[in-house]
Amino acid sequence: MEKLNVWIDSDCGIDDAIAIITACGLKELNIVGASAVVGNVEVDKTYRNVRNVLSLIHREDIPVYKGAAKPIIKPYFSASYFHGSNGLGGAEIPESKAKHEEKNAYDALYEKARELGGNLYVAALGPLSNLAITIADHPDIVNYIRAIAIMGGAVEGGNVTPCAEFNIFCDPHAAEVVFKSGIEVIMCGLDVTMQMKLGQSDIDEIYAYGNKVGDLLYTSTITTKQFYRAENERMIYLHDCCPLFYLAHPELFKAVKCGIYVETEGEITLGKTVTDVYSDHKWEDRHCKAVMKIDHDRFIDMVKDIYRSYEE
Ligand code: RIB
Ligand code: CA
Fold first, then answer.
1. Which residues lie closer than 8 Å to 28 by C-beta, 6 or more apart?
2. Which one of 114, 123, 158, 201 has the lowest number of neighbouring Cβ atoms within 10 Å?
3. List of residues 6+ apart from 143 with CB closer than 8 A
4. Exposed e or buried b per residue across 176-199, where buried means at least 16 C-beta atoms within 10 angstroms of its C-beta
5. Element of type H or E holding 236
6. Ligand 1: does its nearest atom lie under 6 Å from the Cβ of 271?
7. Nearest CA among 263, 283, 72, 80 for reference residue 154
8. According to the model, what pLDDT value does residue 223 have?
9. Shortest CA distance to 256 belongs to which of 166, 189, 194?
């Protein structure tokens, strides 16, 4: 089966790093490029983290481009309280020696989409600022992207406010541009990503593989696990793995067709992804999908197999 060409856009924090490492281990995907966006932490740090994570797994062949330093309209809201000031929970990994790319993320993504004749998926793991700017700078890109699989939003609930998820809340205006662009958006929202729990016992098992990627996962999650305790063990949510695993293994998931729009004006509802999944009133334009369920055990087994496969 032909691999899917995928561009990863990331605000490389703790779960982004896990997503990038596992994505590069999914044989169904061909990662053709990456871009960094402001989000969990500032873009200089997310850019450094994407580069250094790819260098850790010897994938400096994947070019990395720097994107937006702030949301397109609203002030920046950081998640360093969760991901630490360096974005990786304080974990330090060697500096990449890959050359720095001159192009900005927007031109680089557009040129890659044109070069591939539209045979390109985007996995957006952070706020959608880069995607919105790319669409504004190059409107015809909508003809050259097959679909955008995002980690973001939620049919129900929120994690930054009771009704907004961080990536959408951080740049709701950019999200609205993307959802209204006409490109199919596959929304991996909290509905499914909060099923993607990695418990302390799983983390300990991965750490015991004795390689650098397992060490990064263990070290970067030491502090964050204080935020979550499910059943009776500490755990983390592998939010950002979802778009990439959905593209590679849609059979693990249940997704529903729907219309999705973003609240950009509300005081208490700012950043809510309003969907018609549970509504009798259906939007006229329903070109999106909301991913709702995952086969958790098969997913975790795949994550462990990929981490185990890294030699050093
Ligand atoms: O709400 C979870 C999302 O916000 C994840 O992408 C995480 O990395 C943060 O960016
Ligand atoms: Ca992220």
1. 1, 3, 4, 247, 248, 249
2. 201
3. 118
4. bbbbebebebbbbbbbbbbbbbbb
5. strand 233-237
6. no
7. 263
8. 81
9. 189
Enumerate the β-bridge partners of residue 230: 233
pLDDT digits (tens, 9 = 90+) for 4-36: 999 999 999 999 999 999 999 999 999 999 999
| Residue tagged active-site, from 58, 83, 100, 239 | 239
What is the pTM assigned to this prediction? Answer: 0.97
Which three-class secondary structure state does DSSP give residue 304? helix
pLDDT at 231 over 80: no
Centre of ligand 2 to C-alpha 139, Å, is 25
Identify whether 239 is a catalytic site residue: yes
Nearest C-alpha neighbor of 36 from the set 107, 120, 130 = 130
176: which residues sit within 8 A by CB, 6+ positions away? 261, 262, 264
**Which residues, other chains included, contact 33 with Cβ-Cβ below 8 Å and sequence gap of 6+?**
7, 8, 62, 63, 64, 65, 108, 109, 112
Q: How far is CA 1 from CA 25, 123, 213, 266, in A?
A: 16, 20, 28, 45
- Digit-coded pLDDT (tens) for 248-305: 999 999 999 999 999 999 999 999 999 999 999 999 999 999 999 999 999 999 999 9
Ligand 1 pocket, 16 CB below 6 A? yes
Closest-CA residue, ligand 1 atom 1, reads 166
| Residues 40 and 78 sit within 8 Å (Cβ to Cβ) | yes
Token pair 């975790």 is found at: 300
User: Tell me, what DSSP letter sits at residue 217?
Assistant: H
Task: Give the other-Cβ count within 10 Å of 222's Cβ.
Answer: 13
Task: Give the separation between CA 157 and CA 35, rounded to whole angstroms.
Answer: 28
Q: Which helix (H) or strand (E) holds 247?
A: helix 241-248
Q: Which residues pair with 253 in a beta bridge?
A: 294
In percent, the amount of the chain with pLDDT more than 90 equals 94
126 lines ligand 1 (CB under 6 A): yes
The CB of 15 under 6 Å from ligand 1? The reply is yes
